[in-house]
Amino acid sequence: MSTAGTVVSFDEAVGLGVVEAEAGAGGLRYGFHCTQIAGAGRSIAGGTAVRFDVGPGRKGTWEAFNVTPVGTRGDPAQPGAE
């Protein structure tokens, strides 16, 4: 089940970012690597609304996976999206 949230920050130089789950989903923060951004891009701006999955990472901490921007062109989950 995916979680809604917002990208808190993303460092393009190292390819690492942080997302924060919505308050209803606990408001927790999770790190993610640029390879976990869905689509062709390997960068995402802070403040972007996203959906993501959470699971155990390589270092034993919980991380965000399948980080997908919402409300983007062609996103059927967003009313009014083209």
Overview of the structural elements:
This protein has a 5-stranded antiparallel sheet, with no helix packed on it. 0% of the residues lie in helices and 44% in strands. Strand 1 (3-11) and strand 2 form a beta hairpin. The chain has strands at 3-11, 16-21, 29-33, 49-56, 62-69. It contains no helices and 5 strands. It has one domain (3-69): OB fold (Dihydrolipoamide Acetyltransferase, E2P). The chain is mostly beta strands and 82 residues long.
Query: Fraction of residues in helices?
Result: under 10%
Distance between the termini: 25 Å
Please tell me how large the radius of gyration is.
Answer: 12 Å
Q: Give the overall shape, derived from the CA principal axes.
A: globular
CATH architecture designation: Beta Barrel
Let me know the largest β-sheet: 5 strands, antiparallel
Number of helices: 0
Strand order of the largest sheet: 3-2-1-4-5
Number of domains: 1
Order of helices and strands: EEEEE
Superfamily (CATH H level) name: Nucleic acid-binding proteins
Regarding CATH, which class? Mainly Beta
Mean pLDDT: 86
Share of β-strand residues:
35-45%
What class would the helix/strand composition place it in?
A: mainly beta
Low-confidence stretches: 74-82
Let me know the number of strands: 5
Any idea of the CATH topology? OB fold (Dihydrolipoamide Acetyltransferase, E2P)
